[in-house]
Prior knowledge:
This protein is mainly alpha-helical. The chain is built from 16 helices and five strands.
Amino acid sequence: MDESRLVGQVLPGEAGYRVCTRCIMDTTDPDIVFDAKGVCDNCRRFETQLKVRVVPEDRRQEVLDSVVRKIKRSGNGREYDCIVGVSGGTDSTYLVYMAKKIGLRPLAVHFDNGWDSETAVRNIERTLKKLDVDLFTYVVDWDEFRDLQLSFLKASTPDAEIPTDHGIIALLYRVAGQRGIRYILDGTNFAAEGLGPETSWAYGHLDWHYIKSVQKKFGSARLKSFPHLSVARLAYHVLVGRTVFVSVLNYLDFSRDKAIATLTNELGWEYYGGKHCESVYTRFFQSYILPRKFHIDKRKRHLSSLIMSTKEITRERALEEIARAPMPDDVVNRDRAFVLKKLGLRETDFEKLMNLPVKSFRDYANMHSMFRLRQKTLSVGRKIGFATR
Ligand SMILES: [Zn+2]
Protein backbone atom coordinates (compact mmCIF):
# COMPACT_ATOMS: atom_id res chain seq x y z
CA MET A 1 0.00 0.00 0.00
CA ASP A 2 1.22 3.48 -0.87
CA GLU A 3 1.34 5.33 2.45
CA SER A 4 2.29 8.69 0.98
CA ARG A 5 -1.30 9.47 0.00
CA LEU A 6 -4.95 8.92 0.91
CA VAL A 7 -6.22 5.56 -0.33
CA GLY A 8 -7.49 6.03 -3.89
CA GLN A 9 -5.82 9.37 -4.72
CA VAL A 10 -4.38 9.70 -8.26
CA LEU A 11 -2.01 12.64 -8.62
CA PRO A 12 -1.28 15.00 -11.55
CA GLY A 13 1.06 13.43 -14.08
CA GLU A 14 0.11 9.86 -13.15
CA ALA A 15 -1.82 7.41 -15.33
CA GLY A 16 -5.51 7.70 -14.48
CA TYR A 17 -5.33 11.32 -13.28
CA ARG A 18 -8.53 13.17 -14.27
CA VAL A 19 -10.07 16.60 -13.84
CA CYS A 20 -13.83 17.18 -13.99
CA THR A 21 -14.93 18.69 -17.31
CA ARG A 22 -17.16 21.27 -15.60
CA CYS A 23 -15.47 22.24 -12.31
CA ILE A 24 -11.78 21.81 -11.38
CA MET A 25 -12.07 18.98 -8.84
CA ASP A 26 -9.81 16.08 -9.71
CA THR A 27 -8.63 12.65 -8.61
CA THR A 28 -6.73 14.11 -5.65
CA ASP A 29 -10.24 13.69 -4.17
CA PRO A 30 -10.03 9.92 -3.61
CA ASP A 31 -13.82 9.49 -3.63
CA ILE A 32 -14.51 11.39 -6.86
CA VAL A 33 -16.81 9.69 -9.39
CA PHE A 34 -17.22 10.83 -13.00
CA ASP A 35 -20.28 10.33 -15.21
CA ALA A 36 -20.23 9.53 -18.94
CA LYS A 37 -19.68 13.23 -19.76
CA GLY A 38 -16.72 13.46 -17.41
CA VAL A 39 -18.68 15.56 -14.89
CA CYS A 40 -17.91 14.78 -11.23
CA ASP A 41 -20.21 13.90 -8.35
CA ASN A 42 -19.01 16.96 -6.38
CA CYS A 43 -20.49 19.49 -8.77
CA ARG A 44 -23.61 17.39 -9.44
CA ARG A 45 -24.30 17.26 -5.69
CA PHE A 46 -23.49 20.96 -5.25
CA GLU A 47 -25.94 21.87 -8.00
CA THR A 48 -28.77 20.07 -6.21
CA GLN A 49 -27.86 21.42 -2.74
CA LEU A 50 -27.46 24.99 -4.01
CA LYS A 51 -31.18 25.17 -4.80
CA VAL A 52 -31.99 24.28 -1.19
CA ARG A 53 -29.23 26.13 0.69
CA VAL A 54 -29.22 29.47 -1.10
CA VAL A 55 -32.43 31.45 -1.26
CA PRO A 56 -33.45 32.28 -4.85
CA GLU A 57 -32.96 35.93 -5.76
CA ASP A 58 -36.64 36.82 -6.13
CA ARG A 59 -37.49 35.50 -2.63
CA ARG A 60 -34.46 36.78 -0.69
CA GLN A 61 -36.00 39.85 0.92
CA GLU A 62 -39.16 38.06 1.97
CA VAL A 63 -37.30 35.06 3.48
CA LEU A 64 -34.71 37.28 5.20
CA ASP A 65 -37.45 39.49 6.68
CA SER A 66 -39.17 36.48 8.14
CA VAL A 67 -35.93 35.16 9.74
CA VAL A 68 -35.10 38.61 11.14
CA ARG A 69 -38.58 38.87 12.67
CA LYS A 70 -38.12 35.52 14.41
CA ILE A 71 -34.70 36.49 15.77
CA LYS A 72 -35.97 39.84 17.06
CA ARG A 73 -38.96 38.22 18.71
CA SER A 74 -36.74 35.68 20.48
CA GLY A 75 -34.58 38.49 21.87
CA ASN A 76 -37.42 40.56 23.35
CA GLY A 77 -36.41 41.86 26.76
CA ARG A 78 -32.83 40.64 26.44
CA GLU A 79 -29.60 42.55 25.90
CA TYR A 80 -28.76 40.59 22.72
CA ASP A 81 -30.93 38.73 20.24
CA CYS A 82 -28.21 36.75 18.49
CA ILE A 83 -24.58 35.66 18.66
CA VAL A 84 -22.07 36.04 15.86
CA GLY A 85 -18.75 34.20 15.82
CA VAL A 86 -16.00 36.56 14.64
CA SER A 87 -12.50 35.77 13.35
CA GLY A 88 -11.47 39.12 11.86
CA GLY A 89 -11.84 37.64 8.36
CA THR A 90 -14.07 38.86 5.54
CA ASP A 91 -17.12 36.63 5.98
CA SER A 92 -17.58 36.95 9.74
CA THR A 93 -16.90 40.71 9.78
CA TYR A 94 -19.41 41.23 6.97
CA LEU A 95 -21.86 39.12 8.91
CA VAL A 96 -21.70 41.45 11.95
CA TYR A 97 -21.96 44.45 9.63
CA MET A 98 -25.09 43.00 8.02
CA ALA A 99 -26.58 41.92 11.35
CA LYS A 100 -26.44 45.55 12.54
CA LYS A 101 -27.74 46.81 9.22
CA ILE A 102 -30.85 44.63 9.40
CA GLY A 103 -31.57 45.82 12.91
CA LEU A 104 -30.31 42.91 15.02
CA ARG A 105 -28.52 43.23 18.37
CA PRO A 106 -25.63 40.78 18.16
CA LEU A 107 -23.05 39.76 20.74
CA ALA A 108 -19.75 39.01 18.96
CA VAL A 109 -17.88 35.95 20.23
CA HIS A 110 -14.25 35.28 19.39
CA PHE A 111 -12.40 32.00 19.93
CA ASP A 112 -8.75 32.91 20.44
CA ASN A 113 -6.72 29.75 19.81
CA GLY A 114 -3.38 31.56 19.92
CA TRP A 115 -2.90 31.81 16.15
CA ASP A 116 -4.61 35.11 15.29
CA SER A 117 -2.60 37.25 12.90
CA GLU A 118 -2.00 40.84 14.02
CA THR A 119 -4.26 42.05 11.22
CA ALA A 120 -7.08 39.82 12.48
CA VAL A 121 -6.85 41.21 16.01
CA ARG A 122 -6.77 44.80 14.70
CA ASN A 123 -9.75 44.06 12.44
CA ILE A 124 -11.87 42.67 15.25
CA GLU A 125 -11.17 45.59 17.59
CA ARG A 126 -11.60 48.30 14.99
CA THR A 127 -14.74 47.02 13.25
CA LEU A 128 -16.67 46.10 16.40
CA LYS A 129 -15.93 49.48 17.92
CA LYS A 130 -17.21 51.23 14.79
CA LEU A 131 -20.33 49.06 14.76
CA ASP A 132 -20.84 49.43 18.51
CA VAL A 133 -21.02 45.67 19.07
CA ASP A 134 -19.93 44.03 22.36
CA LEU A 135 -17.23 41.38 22.19
CA PHE A 136 -16.72 38.27 24.29
CA THR A 137 -13.33 36.62 23.72
CA TYR A 138 -12.50 33.13 24.88
CA VAL A 139 -8.78 32.40 25.11
CA VAL A 140 -7.86 28.69 24.99
CA ASP A 141 -5.47 27.15 27.50
CA TRP A 142 -2.42 27.17 25.26
CA ASP A 143 -0.69 24.10 26.73
CA GLU A 144 -3.80 22.01 26.21
CA PHE A 145 -4.46 23.32 22.72
CA ARG A 146 -0.86 23.00 21.58
CA ASP A 147 -0.86 19.39 22.72
CA LEU A 148 -4.12 18.74 20.83
CA GLN A 149 -2.75 20.29 17.64
CA LEU A 150 0.38 18.15 17.88
CA SER A 151 -1.80 15.07 18.43
CA PHE A 152 -3.55 15.73 15.12
CA LEU A 153 -0.24 16.16 13.31
CA LYS A 154 0.85 12.81 14.79
CA ALA A 155 -2.47 11.20 13.84
CA SER A 156 -1.46 12.13 10.28
CA THR A 157 -4.96 12.81 8.95
CA PRO A 158 -5.92 15.89 6.88
CA ASP A 159 -8.12 17.03 9.78
CA ALA A 160 -5.64 19.09 11.82
CA GLU A 161 -7.91 22.16 11.68
CA ILE A 162 -10.86 20.27 13.12
CA PRO A 163 -10.06 21.00 16.80
CA THR A 164 -10.44 24.75 16.15
CA ASP A 165 -13.70 24.31 14.23
CA HIS A 166 -15.05 22.11 17.00
CA GLY A 167 -13.95 24.51 19.74
CA ILE A 168 -15.68 27.44 18.02
CA ILE A 169 -18.99 25.61 17.63
CA ALA A 170 -18.89 24.32 21.21
CA LEU A 171 -18.12 27.81 22.50
CA LEU A 172 -20.97 29.42 20.52
CA TYR A 173 -23.45 26.86 21.86
CA ARG A 174 -22.11 27.34 25.38
CA VAL A 175 -22.44 31.14 25.32
CA ALA A 176 -25.90 30.87 23.72
CA GLY A 177 -27.00 28.47 26.47
CA GLN A 178 -25.57 30.58 29.30
CA ARG A 179 -27.19 33.79 28.08
CA GLY A 180 -30.46 32.36 26.84
CA ILE A 181 -29.86 33.46 23.26
CA ARG A 182 -31.49 31.18 20.68
CA TYR A 183 -29.94 32.31 17.42
CA ILE A 184 -26.33 31.95 16.31
CA LEU A 185 -25.42 33.58 13.02
CA ASP A 186 -22.61 31.86 11.19
CA GLY A 187 -20.53 32.89 8.21
CA THR A 188 -21.00 29.74 6.13
CA ASN A 189 -21.30 30.83 2.56
CA PHE A 190 -22.56 27.84 0.66
CA ALA A 191 -22.35 29.40 -2.81
CA ALA A 192 -18.64 30.20 -2.36
CA GLU A 193 -17.42 27.11 -0.52
CA GLY A 194 -20.02 24.37 -0.45
CA LEU A 195 -18.60 22.22 -3.25
CA GLY A 196 -16.27 19.40 -2.32
CA PRO A 197 -15.77 15.89 -1.01
CA GLU A 198 -17.95 14.98 1.95
CA THR A 199 -15.26 13.63 4.26
CA SER A 200 -11.98 12.76 2.55
CA TRP A 201 -10.44 16.28 2.60
CA ALA A 202 -11.65 17.20 6.10
CA TYR A 203 -13.85 15.43 8.59
CA GLY A 204 -15.00 15.80 12.15
CA HIS A 205 -15.89 19.36 13.16
CA LEU A 206 -18.76 17.97 15.28
CA ASP A 207 -17.24 14.60 16.12
CA TRP A 208 -15.87 14.98 19.66
CA HIS A 209 -15.48 11.21 19.91
CA TYR A 210 -12.92 11.30 17.07
CA ILE A 211 -11.07 14.31 18.51
CA LYS A 212 -10.99 12.74 21.95
CA SER A 213 -9.71 9.41 20.63
CA VAL A 214 -6.87 11.08 18.71
CA GLN A 215 -5.90 13.04 21.82
CA LYS A 216 -6.03 9.91 23.97
CA LYS A 217 -3.75 8.06 21.59
CA PHE A 218 -1.15 10.75 20.88
CA GLY A 219 -1.53 13.50 23.46
CA SER A 220 0.04 13.97 26.84
CA ALA A 221 -2.27 16.69 28.25
CA ARG A 222 -5.80 16.09 29.52
CA LEU A 223 -8.33 18.36 27.83
CA LYS A 224 -9.80 19.91 30.93
CA SER A 225 -10.99 23.30 29.74
CA PHE A 226 -11.17 22.96 25.93
CA PRO A 227 -14.77 23.74 24.84
CA HIS A 228 -16.29 20.58 23.42
CA LEU A 229 -19.61 19.04 22.49
CA SER A 230 -20.51 15.46 23.24
CA VAL A 231 -23.42 14.04 21.25
CA ALA A 232 -25.63 14.33 24.34
CA ARG A 233 -24.67 18.00 24.82
CA LEU A 234 -25.28 18.76 21.15
CA ALA A 235 -28.69 17.09 21.36
CA TYR A 236 -29.47 19.10 24.50
CA HIS A 237 -28.64 22.43 22.82
CA VAL A 238 -30.68 21.58 19.72
CA LEU A 239 -33.70 19.90 21.32
CA VAL A 240 -34.01 21.53 24.75
CA GLY A 241 -32.27 24.91 24.29
CA ARG A 242 -33.67 25.03 20.72
CA THR A 243 -30.53 26.86 19.67
CA VAL A 244 -30.47 27.46 15.91
CA PHE A 245 -27.58 28.24 13.57
CA VAL A 246 -28.52 30.55 10.70
CA SER A 247 -26.10 30.97 7.79
CA VAL A 248 -27.20 34.50 6.96
CA LEU A 249 -24.88 34.85 3.95
CA ASN A 250 -27.00 32.19 2.21
CA TYR A 251 -29.94 34.62 2.42
CA LEU A 252 -28.07 37.56 0.89
CA ASP A 253 -26.73 38.56 -2.48
CA PHE A 254 -23.18 38.07 -1.20
CA SER A 255 -20.07 38.80 -3.24
CA ARG A 256 -16.71 38.62 -1.47
CA ASP A 257 -15.21 41.43 -3.59
CA LYS A 258 -18.08 43.76 -2.77
CA ALA A 259 -17.94 42.77 0.91
CA ILE A 260 -14.21 43.58 1.05
CA ALA A 261 -14.84 46.99 -0.54
CA THR A 262 -17.67 47.78 1.90
CA LEU A 263 -15.68 46.72 4.98
CA THR A 264 -12.56 48.59 3.89
CA ASN A 265 -14.39 51.82 3.07
CA GLU A 266 -16.90 51.91 5.89
CA LEU A 267 -15.13 50.20 8.81
CA GLY A 268 -11.41 50.66 8.21
CA TRP A 269 -11.03 46.88 7.92
CA GLU A 270 -7.76 45.59 6.40
CA TYR A 271 -7.46 42.78 3.84
CA TYR A 272 -5.07 40.05 4.96
CA GLY A 273 -4.61 38.13 1.67
CA GLY A 274 -6.37 34.85 0.91
CA LYS A 275 -9.29 32.89 2.29
CA HIS A 276 -9.07 31.90 5.98
CA CYS A 277 -5.67 33.55 6.29
CA GLU A 278 -6.62 35.47 9.42
CA SER A 279 -4.95 32.62 11.34
CA VAL A 280 -1.25 31.93 10.83
CA TYR A 281 -1.72 28.20 11.47
CA THR A 282 -4.60 27.93 8.98
CA ARG A 283 -2.56 29.76 6.37
CA PHE A 284 0.42 27.44 6.86
CA PHE A 285 -1.73 24.33 7.07
CA GLN A 286 -3.58 25.14 3.85
CA SER A 287 -0.63 26.37 1.84
CA TYR A 288 2.03 23.91 3.03
CA ILE A 289 0.95 20.84 5.07
CA LEU A 290 -2.24 20.02 3.14
CA PRO A 291 -0.82 20.33 -0.39
CA ARG A 292 2.61 18.82 0.33
CA LYS A 293 1.67 15.95 2.58
CA PHE A 294 -1.92 15.17 1.60
CA HIS A 295 -1.94 16.45 -2.03
CA ILE A 296 -4.99 18.55 -1.14
CA ASP A 297 -5.39 22.07 -2.50
CA LYS A 298 -8.46 23.61 -0.89
CA ARG A 299 -8.55 26.37 -3.50
CA LYS A 300 -10.01 23.73 -5.84
CA ARG A 301 -13.16 23.53 -3.69
CA HIS A 302 -13.54 27.26 -3.44
CA LEU A 303 -12.88 28.02 -7.10
CA SER A 304 -15.12 25.14 -8.23
CA SER A 305 -17.91 26.51 -6.05
CA LEU A 306 -17.52 29.92 -7.68
CA ILE A 307 -17.48 28.45 -11.21
CA MET A 308 -20.75 26.67 -10.50
CA SER A 309 -22.62 29.24 -8.43
CA THR A 310 -21.71 32.77 -9.41
CA LYS A 311 -20.06 32.50 -12.81
CA GLU A 312 -17.65 35.10 -11.36
CA ILE A 313 -14.79 32.99 -12.68
CA THR A 314 -14.47 30.69 -15.69
CA ARG A 315 -13.04 27.16 -15.48
CA GLU A 316 -10.07 28.27 -17.60
CA ARG A 317 -9.23 31.16 -15.26
CA ALA A 318 -9.57 28.87 -12.24
CA LEU A 319 -7.18 26.32 -13.79
CA GLU A 320 -4.66 29.11 -14.39
CA GLU A 321 -4.98 30.27 -10.81
CA ILE A 322 -4.55 26.79 -9.39
CA ALA A 323 -1.32 26.34 -11.38
CA ARG A 324 0.26 29.09 -9.28
CA ALA A 325 1.62 28.39 -5.78
CA PRO A 326 -0.99 28.93 -3.01
CA MET A 327 1.23 31.41 -1.16
CA PRO A 328 4.49 33.25 -2.01
CA ASP A 329 7.65 31.42 -0.80
CA ASP A 330 8.69 34.18 1.61
CA VAL A 331 5.32 34.03 3.43
CA VAL A 332 5.45 30.22 3.62
CA ASN A 333 9.02 30.25 4.99
CA ARG A 334 8.17 32.89 7.58
CA ASP A 335 5.04 31.00 8.67
CA ARG A 336 6.94 27.72 8.81
CA ALA A 337 9.56 29.13 11.19
CA PHE A 338 6.83 30.73 13.32
CA VAL A 339 4.64 27.59 13.49
CA LEU A 340 7.56 25.30 14.39
CA LYS A 341 8.75 27.64 17.12
CA LYS A 342 5.28 28.10 18.61
CA LEU A 343 4.54 24.37 18.61
CA GLY A 344 8.00 23.66 20.04
CA LEU A 345 9.07 21.47 17.11
CA ARG A 346 12.62 21.06 15.81
CA GLU A 347 13.15 20.84 12.03
CA THR A 348 13.79 17.09 12.31
CA ASP A 349 10.60 16.54 14.39
CA PHE A 350 8.56 18.41 11.82
CA GLU A 351 10.06 16.49 8.89
CA LYS A 352 9.23 13.24 10.71
CA LEU A 353 5.61 14.37 11.09
CA MET A 354 5.46 15.33 7.40
CA ASN A 355 6.76 11.88 6.44
CA LEU A 356 4.44 9.78 8.61
CA PRO A 357 2.16 7.39 6.66
CA VAL A 358 -1.01 9.22 5.58
CA LYS A 359 -4.12 8.16 7.52
CA SER A 360 -7.82 8.97 7.50
CA PHE A 361 -10.34 9.48 10.33
CA ARG A 362 -11.49 5.91 9.61
CA ASP A 363 -8.24 4.70 11.21
CA TYR A 364 -9.47 6.11 14.56
CA ALA A 365 -12.58 5.81 16.69
CA ASN A 366 -15.30 8.09 15.29
CA MET A 367 -19.04 8.58 15.01
CA HIS A 368 -19.21 9.20 11.29
CA SER A 369 -22.23 6.98 10.63
CA MET A 370 -24.26 8.91 13.20
CA PHE A 371 -23.24 12.32 11.82
CA ARG A 372 -24.01 11.14 8.29
CA LEU A 373 -27.51 10.30 9.41
CA ARG A 374 -27.79 13.75 11.04
CA GLN A 375 -26.64 15.37 7.78
CA LYS A 376 -29.22 13.43 5.77
CA THR A 377 -32.00 14.37 8.19
CA LEU A 378 -30.93 18.02 8.00
CA SER A 379 -30.98 17.94 4.18
CA VAL A 380 -34.55 16.61 4.22
CA GLY A 381 -35.46 19.24 6.84
CA ARG A 382 -34.10 21.98 4.60
CA LYS A 383 -35.95 20.67 1.56
CA ILE A 384 -39.30 20.77 3.34
CA GLY A 385 -38.50 24.16 4.88
CA PHE A 386 -38.20 22.84 8.44
CA ALA A 387 -34.51 23.57 8.99
CA THR A 388 -32.68 26.84 8.42
CA ARG A 389 -30.32 27.12 5.46
ZN1 LIG B 1 -17.12 18.70 -11.12
